[in-house]
Amino acid sequence: MSIDGHKILIANRGEIAVRIMEACSDLGLPFAALYTEEDSQSGHLDVARRLGGEKSLYRIHNYLDAGDILSVADEAGATAIHPGYGFFSENYRFARRVVQRDRAMTFIGPSWEVIRDLGDKINTKRIARTLGVPTVPGSDRAIYDELEAEAIAESLFEFQAKMGINRPVVLVKASAGGGGMGIDECEDMARFRQTYRRIRNYSLRTFNDEGVLIEQRVFNFNHLEVQIVSDRSGTNPVHFGTRNCSVQSPGLQKRIEVAPGFWPQGFAYSFDAQKVLDDITGYSLSIAKEIKYDNVGTWEWIVTPNGDPFLMEVNTRIQVENGVSACISSVRGDRDVNLIREQIRIGLGDPLGYTQDDVTFDGVGIEYRLIAEDTENGFTPWVGRIEELKWQERDWLTVHTHVPTDRTYQIPTEYDPNLALAIIWGKDLEEAKERGLRFLNDLKLNGSDSAGGPMKSNVPFLLAKTANLLEF
Distance (Å, rounded) from C-alpha 433 to C-alpha 428? Predict the structure, then answer.
């Protein structure tokens, strides 16, 4: 195998760092793991010591300090960097720096050019449209002319009226913005003209660019994803099915993911659900082939109540929920599918070694994100100490966590209060839901805050949402 002789620097923390260590161990690869002072009690250090020894651990100041991370990579003799998700995982400048520095290393993710090209949502939309892939209706480039902007807005209002939308809404965005800055919505053309001028002026003041994007606002939709895997040739992508990620917090943070994305065997949808699933996997593969996608990635879709799919964006990294897709997948009949392991293997140059015909699917997977948060108070993070985290081992259950189960654990306030991922498999949706409820009801998750108050978690929210999974 071409991966022999490599050593992986894991530029991340918590649960994903644990899973990368385990995947490296499966592949027989040494690794170097990072931690900060705030993370010194994290269970990912325990796993590093167990699988890599004390010398595999390196303390850094900040997971977003690129210089610090690359210095550790040099000190550890790493030949590749795995960014996990978040942090540097979709930063094409960091990926480029990794592969172009004097002591070049491999970036385990897509090539930096692919990260750059698909990270630009306007560019992604343009590529999609040239291939006939449906995207959220609206402009696929920045608009600078007011008459052109009005024509686009009028066409969007007409389109929504034809779709039977009672309250059509158009989004106006600063094309140079990000993170929710410079966005407003309007319900008619009179308001549109005022909104367009205000956003254009805001964009010019803030970003020195008066370009504006105009899109349809979609309210009622399901959020689906397609999991894509392709080797460094970029010529042979395969999909590992679909996921439904519609159970989210008010801040649009995912809380439950289900694979596959719909369950036509059990529900009478108002549209051909199987055709939608087939269409979005086919569309996603067409873009992957066009851009020569060369690692693991996720194509994110919204599907309207009429069954109309629209591509939202491409995430050029491994995602939290990769395991729920793996748990329903087999390659040539082998159920031991691990997409992080695949990501490392092909990222280091191994050929994929199988085709779409070799990938089969069976059953339903549910992933719960266990989070310390007060779901009755705006999903605000809960701060305190975890005193007990226990679950009953089952052959249909996998739990990934960095929370130590043999001692108390103070949740670091510097990071998100994600505690664990639980992945449940069932032969069908009903069995997966029944097993999911059994897991949540049996789970022991307790703690206290600094005033002695009891822990707050999202377990009650997960219990309530399980009943209606995949209904639309």
Answer: 9
- What is the C-alpha separation between 89 and 43, in angstroms, rounded? 22
CB burial of residue 16 (10 Å; 0-12, 13-18, 19+): buried
For residue 20, give the H/E element and its range: helix 14-27
Is the pTM for the entire model greater than 0.85? yes
CB contact set of 450 (below 8 Å; sequence gap of 6+): 383, 384
Query: Over the stretch 341-389, which tens digit does the pLDDT of each residue have?
Result: 999 999 999 999 999 999 999 999 999 999 999 999 999 999 999 999 9
- Residue in 177, 135, 171, 175 with CA at minimum distance from that of residue 153: 171
Mapped to the 3 state alphabet, what secondary structure does 212-275 carry?
EEEEECCCCCEEEEEEEECCCCCCCCEEEEEEEEEEECCCCCEEEEEECCCCCCCCCCCCCHHH
Residue 317 is among the residues annotated as catalytic for this protein? yes
Residue recorded with tokens 């999991």: 227
pLDDT in tens, 37-56: 999 999 999 999 999 999 99
The catalytic residue among 317, 341, 369, 435 is: 317
The Cβ of residue 430 has, within 10 Å, a number of other Cβ atoms equal to 12
200, 167 in Cβ contact below 8 A?
A: no
DSSP string covering 413-439 = TTS--EEEEEEEEESSHHHHHHHHHHH
DSSP per residue, 148-195: HHHHHHHHHHHHHHHTT-SS--EEEEETT--TTTTEEEESSHHHHHHH
For residues 167 and 172, what is the distance between their CA atoms, to the nearest angstrom?
A: 16
How distant, in Å, are the alpha carbons of 30, 101, 108, 205 from that of 5?
9, 20, 15, 52
State yes or no: cis peptide before 260, omega within 30 of 0: yes
In the chain, the domains with their CATH numbers are 8-108 (3.40.50.20), 137-216 (3.30.1490.20), 222-467 (3.30.470.20)
In single-letter form, the type of residue at position 290 comes to E
